[in-house]
Amino acid sequence: AGAGVLLLSEDLVSGERGTLGQIEAKTCAVRALAEQWFGVLVRSPLAEERWLASGLAGSLAGKVVAKHFGENEGAYQWSRKLDLVVAEQDDASPSIAHTGQAGFGLAQELQRYTSSHVLRHKADLLVWMVENRTGAEPFQKVVKAIVQGALKETSGTVGCRLTCEDFFHRAAKVFDSGVDKNWLQSFNERWIVGRGCPHVVV
C-alpha cells in the first residue's frame, strides 16, 4: 500500500501536556500508525469483516503501549476498553458484523452509544481473545506471516485483502492452538454475529 499521512490535533501533540496527556497522545499516534498496517496494507474486503483489521491494529498498538509504558499501563488500557464495551452493550445492541455492513465506525447504530469507540474497542478485544486461545507466540507468527505476505503481494497502490476465513484458517494450522472448526463456529456466532461482550482477564 502507498504511504499514509497521519493528521494529529495540535492539542494532542502539545509539549505542555502532563504525564497522562503524553500517554494519551502517544497512544493515539501508535494506534494511527498501526492502522497503516492493518487497515491500509492489510484490509478486509467484506464490510462485515472490517472488525478484523481494526482489531489487529488494536492488538499491535496494545503491544507497543505495553512495551513503551510498561505492562501495567497496557493492562490498564485493555481493562478500560473492556469496561466501556460491557457498559455499552446489551441485547439490543447491533452486532459487530451488522455494524460493519453499515460502515464500521461510522454506522448509524453508533448514535446509541455514549462513546463512538465502543465497537472499535470490541474488535480489539475479540482479536485479543483469539490470541489468548492460540497463545502469544503462535499468534504473532500468524500475524507476521500475514504482513510478510501482504508486503510481497502489494505493488504500492492496493492493500492486501484478508478475510476472516483466511485468518482463522491460518490460526487453526498453528500446532496446539485450540482453534478448531467447532470453536471458530461458536466464536463467530457468539461474538461477531451475536451481541456478546468479550471476557478478558487482564
Automatic annotation (TrEMBL):
Alphabetized InterPro entries for the sequence: Peptidase_M4/M1_CTD_sf, TAF2
Annotated signal sequence range: none
Gene Ontology CC terms: transcription factor TFIID complex
GO MF: chromatin binding; RNA polymerase II general transcription initiation factor activity; transcription cis-regulatory region binding
Alphabetical GO biological process terms: transcription initiation at RNA polymerase II promoter
PANTHER family: TRANSCRIPTION INITIATION FACTOR TFIID (PTHR15137), TRANSCRIPTION INITIATION FACTOR TFIID SUBUNIT 2 (PTHR15137:SF9)
Protein's UniProt name: Uncharacterized protein
Highest classification ranks of the organism: Eukaryota, Viridiplantae, Chlorophyta, Chloropicophyceae, Chloropicales
